[in-house]
Amino acid sequence: MSIKIGILGYGNLSRGVESAIKQNDDLELVAVFTRRNPEGVKIKTEGVGVYSVDEIENFKDKIDVLVLGGGSATDLPEQTPKYAKLFNVIDSFDTHARIPEHFENVDKAAKEAGKVGIISIGWDPGLFSLLRMVSTAVLPEGNNYTFWGKGVSQGHSDAIRRIEGVVDARQYTIPVDAAVESVRNAENPTFTARQQHTRECFVVAEEGADLARIEKEIKEMPNYFEPYDTTVHFISKEELDKNHASLPHGGFVIRSGKTGFEKENSHIVEFNLKLDSNPEFTGSVIAAYARAAYKLNKEGASGAKTIFDIPVAYLSSKSAEELRKTLL
Amino acid sequence: MSIKIGILGYGNLSRGVESAIKQNDDLELVAVFTRRNPEGVKIKTEGVGVYSVDEIENFKDKIDVLVLGGGSATDLPEQTPKYAKLFNVIDSFDTHARIPEHFENVDKAAKEAGKVGIISIGWDPGLFSLLRMVSTAVLPEGNNYTFWGKGVSQGHSDAIRRIEGVVDARQYTIPVDAAVESVRNAENPTFTARQQHTRECFVVAEEGADLARIEKEIKEMPNYFEPYDTTVHFISKEELDKNHASLPHGGFVIRSGKTGFEKENSHIVEFNLKLDSNPEFTGSVIAAYARAAYKLNKEGASGAKTIFDIPVAYLSSKSAEELRKTLL
Q: What is the ipTM of this complex?
């Protein structure tokens, strides 16, 4: 008997979840819900319906876990607590500063309904958080470093697209080699944002647009680009579509710590991801934790959970005996 | 109030645990137990007693978690179940093939006594297992690779020491660069043992010993050296003590997996350790999981647990709220 999954929204991340479900025999996609006209949404999985979100309550007993594919700015703060009243839910909420508040809202709704709500799943927050937590507990005296890239930041690409005269854009976040090397050599450096990452932008401008003005607006954009060394390349729409269509990403979390009665020994713990497709990998993490949501709830658990609260055995379709035998 | 830790045995690993306890304010070493004459064992932590293992029962209510510092061949199969009847226990049992049997024995004893017994903690088995499990669940279609080194294998060093005419030895396990590169490039290779690691040995021989015979015996030793390209260097005791006194180690686990409806996207998940001191890092992992044993038992849990069964939040002295705020 498979675990029945619903997905709300059908953007890049939801497509990644759909693809991941297909790779897991014990997971079954049963419905995609949309706020648009369902007839305009064509999904890849044959035989699975697309429904208006207005119909979602009718699926109360037909879905084991609802995946929320929306964004952290406005969708998830409202949707995750709302749907935790009906379903076990999982989201990829990534506004770090608002996680405590989001957790409380989901926890309250999920507990009242006897459901499990897993929040902030993906790779950062998500697997990177897991590794930061474990390595900090193991090496209490040390420093954490997070590098992102080389890869496409969708948030930064969107920020460029909002500039007047810009048709399309891709922004790559790139770790600075010297910074990475210093961390891996256990030098325990401190960095400004500029010293740790650079930003490279490929921009398609409208015909006749003022390129100098666009470049200036990008480079001076507070928070997004101003604190970094930023390079801007203007290219054609054809070139963007040809060379920058995919959404690769990655990065690494490093804990640099010391042990010994005299702190004489250094240790480097690194977790490193190289991803051809950010949404498909993120979707794969979400699929595994959707399985965990189902298993936890089946055992009687309820309320909000994060990646810190869930034994990793719950991620697998294999039994605990099998896992001990093959992967320990 | 601190968590009271006892350690049975006082070899390299136990010293690493002792050092880790000193770095964690909420952990307190209260006793070291030995099968030797306690008066001959001098530990580093001031004010803490060394006792004969015959006295261990007297500490039943004075110790929250007993760390078993012994070896997997003969000590732990007997000791972990035995002491799980008296204490929450933790060990670093690393005979992969016998883990299911060891788990059952510890589980039975610990459940009867209402204690928690955490087995096979360290980095392999241990953190490497955790990463293998998570990344296999996230990327169900793919391959796992484990590389060890560059670092000192104590088992292989011991094997050389047992050869007639050998005074002392250090064996370094070294990953083959071309193999590592192929895996990181998502080529999904298959390897023989020889293609994945080489072995380099530094050997101090007795005066007048037959060096050619020793070298031959090393290189032809089944399982340990025969399946590998092995280099043997004969050096003086002084040189060994000067250049090969420390016990560095490390290695990395890589999951190479594919996603997408056409399996068109590759992903590389790598967990990498570079350790100046293998016993101190292993001891640090054990200290964090000793905290988890205490917390789990305090909440009413009992029985055997592995790294797959324990939410990582239990490793930390910080509250769940604090962890969500700072590390998620």
A: 0.96
